[in-house]
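Q: Hi! First time doing this. I have a protein sequence and I read that you can turn it into a structure. Is that right? Here it is:
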Amino acid sequence: MEGGHSCLPINAEGNRGFKLKRILVLTVLAGMGHIRAAEAICEGIRSVSQESVVWLKDPLEEEPKKQRFINDFYVFMARHMPHLWGYFYNSRLLSGAYSPMRWYITRRYASLIAKNIKEWNPDIIVSTHPFLAAAVGVLKKRKGLNIPLISVATDFHVHLFGINKQVDTFIVPCEEVAEYLNRQGVNSEKIVSCGIPISLKFSVPLRIEEAKEKLGFDRDKPLVLLLSGGFGIGPVLDLLKAFRGIEGKFQLAIIIGRDEKLRKRAKEIAQTLNCPIKVFSFVDNMEEFVSAADMVITKPGGMSVSETLAKRVPLCLMQAIKGQEEWNVRILVKAGAAVYSKDVRDIPSVVIGLLNDEAKCSCMRESAGRLGKPNCSENIARLVINIGVTDNVSGIHKS
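A: Yes, that's right. Below is the predicted 3D structure, encoded as structure tokens:
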């Protein structure tokens, strides 16, 4: 995380004679999606405003054991107990107004965020996780905090935990999610539909043939890109095994992430396949791989699908966990940008069928283009820096 509070004095003046915008972007390490979204927002702000100072903060950084526990708990549940995770996600035990779990989480985060606010005195707070939006809401409602709060969705859904009247603006990926918030009692004037924030690198055009050549693939063969996420969550090995014995004029690329054991096992299985295949660990040029792909196979995480949509690439989604990923599947399949297969053994035949159906793929690319928002981070940045700075903001007031 970035601790940018020392880069400029608190009361510095910008080149145009007005007070510098001080923006606190809050995130949580629970998988990589929330952090990547927060990083993209910071990237967008820096690209459109030289006069703004932005800080990226996970409030639990000062408590690394708890930070690791939250991330490890999420990854373990998503990988080994997805149904139990889905139960908690959808249960009022977590999001209910009188839930002891909600009470503890919001107040723990609220006390940490209050310290950040007192240290940095931000003009605006941006949250990429519902826990944080709820915690800032508590500070605004009960501690007299008078700072605009923007809550940014990182999936095609907004969890009930983070929906509260103290949020000034909800950033959502599409109109369907905006309508969902309306049904939860959120005023339309508080909702902005502009996408899920992704790195500005995904807005840079790159022709598919050029991308294939740059990455060392055959430019004349369809490339199927398989993503496992930063922590290797999902049935990656089972899917690779499903491609055994499959004949076809295509090539495979698989990006494993940070799990070295999984990468080694994937390379062993790759040697048994009949098609050309390359196995990669974590990469920092994902935009080039997606640009090179004719089809992307992935779990339906909000960031992965948003990056793919931005490049107008058809999606084959697999093994959605109950909760946010089910919402992602529902909206993307309904829009025509993706197909979904519950059984990974069916995915090779589904993918080959799509690759052989150019008309279907063309329709999917058009649908992806309608949902994809490659410039979302910059649009969010403009919204943030154009919010009027509240007069006499003094952080947390004593009640």
